[in-house]
Amino acid sequence: MAGARRRASEDDAVPTRIGQAVMLHRGGDREEARNRLSELWRELHQGGAGGDPFHRCALAHYLADTQDDPADELRWDLLALAAADRIADADRRPAAGEVRAFYPSLHLNLAADYAKLGRPEAARGQLALARASARGLVEGPYGDGVRAAIHRLALRLDAAEGDPPG
Which domain of life is it from (predicted)? Predict the structure, then answer.
């Protein structure tokens, strides 16, 4: 019983630690944020279990943002998507419906990664998935921000390919 309580307490601390690292990143300390998130990733994977899929999704999502190499960013974003898929498939806590709200952002990030890597077709494919999944987002700061970012990336892809905006 004490072990289960200690594990629950540790699980509750993970989002706090992710949030602290995200604040460091947003404050301009990308390297320290990456170091803290990487350490947390290692801790979650001790013993091979990998921790809660929701924590893995959030952690990989934010770790991607701290990467210097676009290929590393892509790898972390793919890990975030895989964790989200695991949650949605298993209908775990948080509810699969809540996780579906992450999909537009996850696909948007993958589209941006592919664009950085000079893979416009893959970028457009992920952008289409981002658009489709964004239809389910409610109006508000998060949904509006994601839809605006999707539109901006579409414009950048069009400009890079010399296509008229669509």
Answer: Bacteria
pLDDT at 11: 60
Residues 60-73 have a mean pLDDT of: 97
> Predicted confidence band at 103 (pLDDT cuts at 50, 70, 90)?
very high
- Taking alpha carbons only, the member of 18, 23, 56 closest to residue 37 is 18
Outline where DSSP puts E strands in the chain.
none
Number of domains observed in the structure of the chain: 2
Nearest-CA neighbor of 110 among 135, 129, 96?
129
Closest CA to 85 of 112, 53, 55, 60: 53
- If asked whether residues 105 and 128 sit together in one domain, one would say yes
Last residue of a domain, one of 33, 58, 90: 90
Residue 7, pLDDT score: 47
Q: How far apart are the first and last CA of the chain?
A: 58
